[in-house]
């Protein structure tokens, strides 16, 4: 019975998607404001990546909402999962291959994540994508050595500072400019690293916040205590 | 020429995604199902890249394929549906197979 209800639900969803897809030409969304933003963004914001100028310029308050949602989700996850005891038993250390690969990949992932965050206003990517890569970098050592301590307190402090920095930059925009989160510091030369005003700073804050938040969430989930007799060779 | 190549590549990606989505429903092991959802996410990421949305493609690859599969795998581990075993013929492995049969029996 339950299977048939699920099937009916899926069929209805597919029908809705089909109708939606049929009403638009594939790959040509009905853009009302897109053309205007495409034309005015290089002169107004100065970010080579127009997606960034939308995410942190025209729709920056949306991004703040996204960060708030992510924060609420991570907080709720941490609250439900709780904190493992310091004397809790852990899985045995992973084998030689995983340990060596984790040691090798850790700096590489850090560099890739920071590169994606710092070049968010120039190339595709940005704080969210780079933050997830940073979270993966922080999680790798924990995957190889489950017994290692994860410094939740330091990560929470970093995360709070990054979130506060985002709001402080927004308030500075309100004070020195006209609106909350208005880009300051001038546009600079489009395509250079120091361009687009405060957008790169905002993306650094977003990247640190997303990275630390997700890393501590994954560390919470992975802090698993095997039952006695389990996980031993 | 290039357009037709991209069309064929897009078709291939969609077929792979559909196969992955079907595999999620069909496979018996939970970890295999998680891996199949990752295939769907990677296909979506490739499709976004072909539609010239590299930002969305990167997000899909990082969050959809990377982070969410890690979280699903860790959730399986917490639920006791996936166990790290040492050695193929060990006692733990045999116990895992027995557990899996019991879980599958409970599902059916």
What does this structure look like?
The complex is a heterodimer of chains A (233) and B (108). Chain A is mostly helical and 233 residues long. Chain A has one domain (31-222). Chain A is built from eight helices and no strands. Chain A has helices spanning 2-23, 34-44, 50-58, 60-81, 96-118, 127-144, 152-176, 199-222. In chain A, helix 6 (127-144) runs parallel beside helix 8 (199-222) and helix 7 (152-176) packs antiparallel against helix 8 (199-222). Chain A is globular, with a radius of gyration of 22 Å. The model of chain A has no long low-confidence stretch (mean pLDDT 83). Chain B has 108 residues and is mainly α. Chain B has one domain (2-107). Helices cover 81% and strands 0% of the residues of chain B. Chain B contains four helices and no strands. In chain B, helix 1 (2-26) runs antiparallel to helix 2 and helix 2 packs antiparallel against helix 3. The longest helix of chain B has 25 residues, at 2-26. The radius of gyration of chain B is 18 Å and the shape is elongated. The A-B interface holds A 27, 49, 51, 91-92, 116, 124-126, 128-129, 132-133, 135-136, 139, 214, 218, 221-222, 224, 230-233 and B 51, 54-55, 57-59, 62-63, 66-67, 70-71, 74-75, 77-78, 83-84, 86-87, 90, 92.
Task: Chart the SSEs and their pairings.
The complex is a heterodimer of chains A (233) and B (108).
Chain A: H1 2-23, H2 34-44, H3 50-58, H4 60-81, H5 96-118, H6 127-144, H7 152-176, H8 199-222
Chain B: H1 2-26, H2 30-50, H3 54-78, H4 91-107
């Amino acid at each position: 019975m339950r299977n048939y209800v699920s099937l009916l639900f899926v069929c209805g969803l597919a029908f809705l998607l089909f109708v939606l897809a049929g009403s638009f030409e594939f790959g040509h969304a009905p853009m009302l404001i897109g053309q205007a933003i495409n034309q005015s963004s290089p002169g107004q914001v100065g970010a080579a990546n127009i997606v960034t100028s939308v995410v942190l310029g025209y729709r920056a308050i949306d991004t703040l909402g996204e960060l708030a949602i992510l924060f609420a989700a991570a907080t709720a996850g941490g609250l439900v999962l709780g904190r493992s005891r310091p004397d809790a038993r852990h899985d045995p250390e992973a084998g030689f291959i995983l340990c060596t690969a984790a040691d090798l990949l850790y700096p590489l992932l850090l560099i890739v994540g920071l590169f994606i965050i710092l070049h968010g206003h120039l190339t595709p990517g940005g704080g969210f994508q780079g933050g997830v890569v940073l979270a993966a970098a922080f999680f790798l050592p924990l995957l190889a050595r489950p017994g290692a301590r994860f410094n939740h307190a330091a990560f929470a402090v970093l995360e709070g500072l990054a979130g506060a920095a985002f709001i402080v930059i927004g308030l500075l925009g309100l004070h020195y400019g006209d609106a909350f989160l208005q880009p300051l510091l001038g546009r600079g030369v489009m395509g250079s690293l120091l361009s687009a005003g405060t957008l790169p700073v905002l993306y650094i804050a977003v990247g640190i916040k997303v990275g630390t938040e997700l890393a501590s969430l994954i560390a919470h989930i992975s802090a698993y205590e095997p039952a006695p007799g389990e996980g031993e060779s | 020429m290039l357009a037709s190549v991209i069309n064929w590549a897009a078709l291939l990606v969609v077929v792979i995604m559909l196969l992955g989505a079907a595999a999620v429903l069909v496979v018996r092991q939970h970890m295999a199902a998680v891996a199949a959802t990752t295939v769907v996410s990677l296909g979506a990421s490739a499709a976004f890249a072909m539609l010239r949305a590299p930002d969305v493609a990167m997000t899909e690859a990082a969050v959809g394929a990377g982070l969410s599969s890690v979280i699903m795998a860790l959730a399986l581990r917490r639920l006791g549906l996936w166990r790290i075993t040492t050695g193929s013929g060990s006692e733990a492995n045999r116990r895992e197979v027995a557990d899996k049969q019991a879980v599958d029996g409970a599902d059916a």
